[in-house]
């Protein structure tokens, strides 16, 4: 067991949180999160668990027991699935080193979460995040559907402009402010505000084009957005006079 643990420590370094190999109940604790190195700090904040592995005196000829604590961003159903998966891996590797394969399997499983904790909901619409849905997290690591957050931002910016006009009308000193996170009220950063404003602009353009497309279908022609006139297609030419 000590040789196997030395290998793990050389690979995972500080992610081996605790080890007790010489007591009556030998165990180790491992911090596990998705393996995407580019977003490692994000992953540690959003999708993470501590795996406790408890060994019997007969290890590795007996399957160890697994426990989970400090779970964040992972739903209970998936914790149960992880437990089943790693128990099966342990059963296949009886009598051999198994810990590296167990830890890597959990990391690979968590990697399917991407950067969005599945246990979270958008606090604006209160719906879960579904695969393929565009999601934005703010600096405070609160997650929202991008469409929900961009709409919220548009209203927030309008409110700020109204407050500013009201202050100017009554000659009250105006202290500029930026929109805040809908959940914790931390100010949004400038870059995120600009990205969301651009997203809103694109969405509004798409909505206008959809209306034009519906007009096109009804009229049976192509609509030029700028001139808003119809070029009729597939219409039989009018007969020449006298024919």
TrEMBL record:
A biological process term (GO) from this entry: cellular response to stress
Gene3D superfamilies linked: Ubiquitin Conjugating Enzyme, Zinc/RING finger domain, C3HC4 (zinc finger)
Keywords, ordered alphabetically: Metal-binding, Zinc, Zinc-finger
Domain of life, source organism: Eukaryota
Matches recorded under SMART domains: RING, RWD
Domain RING-type as annotated: residue spans: 122-185
GO MF: ubiquitin protein ligase activity; zinc ion binding
One GO location term (cellular component): nucleus
All copies of domain RWD, residue ranges: 3-113
Protein name as catalogued: Uncharacterized protein
Species name: Brachionus calyciflorus
């Amino acid at each position: 067991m000590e040789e196997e643990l030395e290998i793990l420590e050389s690979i995972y370094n500080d992610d081996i949180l605790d080890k007790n190999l010489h007591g009556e109940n030998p165990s180790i604790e491992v911090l596990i999160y998705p393996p995407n190195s580019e977003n490692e700090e994000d992953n540690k904040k959003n999708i993470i668990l501590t795996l406790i592995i408890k060994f019997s005196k007969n290890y590795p000829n007996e399957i160890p027991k697994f426990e989970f604590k400090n779970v964040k961003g992972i739903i209970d159903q998936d914790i149960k699935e992880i437990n089943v998966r790693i128990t099966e891996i342990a059963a296949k590797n009886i009598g051999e080193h198994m810990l590296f394969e167990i830890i890597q399997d959990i990391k690979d499983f968590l990697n399917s979460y991407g950067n969005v904790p599945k246990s979270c909901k958008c606090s604006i619409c209160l719906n879960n995040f579904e695969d393929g849905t565009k999601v934005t997290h703010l600096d405070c690591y609160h997650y929202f559907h991008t469409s929900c957050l961009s709409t919220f931002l548009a209203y927030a910016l309008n409110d700020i402009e109204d407050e500013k006009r009201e202050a100017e009308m009554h000659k009250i000193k105006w202290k500029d402010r930026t929109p805040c996170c809908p959940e914790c009220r931390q100010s949004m950063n400038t870059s995120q505000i600009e990205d969301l404003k651009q997203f809103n602009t694109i969405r509004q353009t798409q909505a206008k084009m959809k209306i034009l497309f519906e007009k096109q279908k009804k009229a049976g022609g192509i609509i030029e957005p700028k001139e808003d006139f119809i070029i009729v297609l597939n219409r039989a030419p009018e007969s020449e006079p006298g024919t």
